[in-house]
Design a protein that fits this description.
4% strand, mainly alpha, 2 domains, nucleotide-binding, 2 strands, two-stranded antiparallel sheet
Length: 101
């Protein structure tokens, strides 16, 4: 766990460690960041990395994409590629949260 005052860089460090910065258009990464001796910006499976480094946000913070894509993201990260399956799970999830209509 990281604990510190507001603005000290906790979230920035975690975004580096779990490669959330990859989602920022035009981001430039320099240098090397290793975890367990492996460069996390090398050719690795980002989903496996994110299993090791989790973030809990104070407020819900969707990725900068559609609501559908935000819900589908977790499915795709788990290797589910079938569009029909993704569509069904997304619709069921959004209906369950009263967000479909």
């Amino acid at each position: 766990a990281l604990i510190g005052p507001s603005g000290c860089g906790k979230s920035t460090l975690l975004r580096c460690l779990n490669r959330m910065n990859d989602l920022i258009e035009g981001v430039k990464i320099t240098g090397k960041l290793a975890m367990d001796g492996e460069d996390i910006y090398g050719n690795i499976d980002v989903a496996d990395l994110r299993i090791k480094v989790g973030m809990v946000f104070q407020k819900p913070n969707p990725f900068p994409m559609s609501i559908y894509e935000n819900v589908a993201y977790g499915l795709r990260a788990q290797g589910i590629k079938d569009k029909k399956t993704i569509d069904e799970v997304v619709e069921r999830s959004l209906r369950g949260a009263a967000l479909w209509d």
